Structures are given as structure tokens and as C-alpha cells.
Amino acid sequence: MTEASPLSRYQLAELGALLAEPARAAILLALMDGTTRPAGELARIAGVSPATASAHLKRLLDGGLLGLHEQGRHRYFRLANDDIAAWLEGMVLPHASRTAPAAAARDPVLCRARTCYRHLAGQLGVALCEAWLDRGWLQTGSDGICLLPVAADALVHTGWQASPTQQLLRLRGRGCLDWTERRLHLGGPLGVAITDAMLDAGWLRRAPRQRALLPTPDGLRRLAELGVRLDT
């Protein structure tokens, strides 16, 4: 599913049918954190038997929503790509006005910082995107959002390695509408790479709960040096 290849009415109807089954919806939601999971685990999450889960997984694979990684006799499932993840995340938006306040009150940690598929979302993700746009470190264009060299220099000064930072300059991102904040955070390959770099550097760590990210004190200090401040 891309802008270059719009859906036909038949494809749209098939996607609707795929999402209409609660067990398949549960499988897709479980994979929204970017993980790769075996069929047995997805069956337990969906609350169905292994045989039923196998049938659902086949339909999702055939429908192009899932990807498959085979390792020996083991089969692991993931979302097909970032486009599918962004589309699924967008499906939440029509209900955001009803669910966001309840979600924030119920789980403020998740709303503060989390993964949206594999990139940073929540209050911290929005703060980063807005701060770097204001500083002119991110530039939007017809091919997406790119990181400018002045930003790469600032990242190196803050402690990032020069080689990975230079790789960021070749990637493109996109604005992804945050379902709790109703503002944009940085998605796409650039957003994923920046999030991975912050995890590797210890600025963020994964929480035990699904999708939540915890900024470390050192991470918050270094992000503040880059203009990104998270209200406490």
C-alpha cells in the first residue's frame, strides 16, 4: 500500500475483512511494537487454538499485512513493513478523541514515550520532531523528511559516533500523527534509526510493559542539549 499504488475497492474490502476478525486484529496489535513472534505466542495473545491461529496468520500473510522469517523449523511473524505499521497506527486516529484521555490517565508512562512500530512516539517523540524542525535540523521535501548536516554535527558533539550519524543523512523519514498527542512525530527509516541509536547509547531503555520506553537521566540531559525537553 503506497501512494504510487492506490488500493482498488476490492483490495480495500479485503483489508476490511482481515481487520474485522478480533483474533486477527489482536495479532496485528501485538506486532505493532516491531517484534517478531512465533505462531504459538500469537495464538495465546489472540486467545485461539494453534490451528485457528495458523489459519489467521496465513490470511494475514496472503493479504500482505505480515512478513515471515523462517529459521530452521521455526517460523516467526512480523508486520510486513513500515507502511503497514503506519497504516495500522492511523486506524486508531478516528477514535483518538475518545481513547487518548483514558489511555493517558491509565498509563502515563506509555503516553510519555513509546514505540510506534519501531520509532519513538508519545510526548518525547513529538518534542523531538518539533524541536528539530524549529532549529532547522530537519527538512521536509517531496521525498520525505531528511536530517541536515548541522544536526549531524550537533549529534556528534553530544556523543554520537560520527559514522552512524553520517548514515542518518542518507535516510528519509516521514511525519507520523501521534494518536495520544495529535501532533507529528518522526517516523519512517530515519525515525527508526534515530530511535535505535538512542537505545544503543543508553538514552532510552525498553520498559517491561509493551511498547513503553523509559528515558534515562543521561538521555534526558543529552536530549536537552539538542533542544528536546520533556515536561515532567
Automatic annotation (TrEMBL):
Q: Where is the HTH arsR-type domain?
A: 4-99
Any stretches that span the bilayer, and where are they? none
Pfam families noted in UniProt: HTH_20 (PF12840)
This chain belongs to the protein called: Helix-turn-helix transcriptional regulator
Annotated source species:
Dyella lipolytica
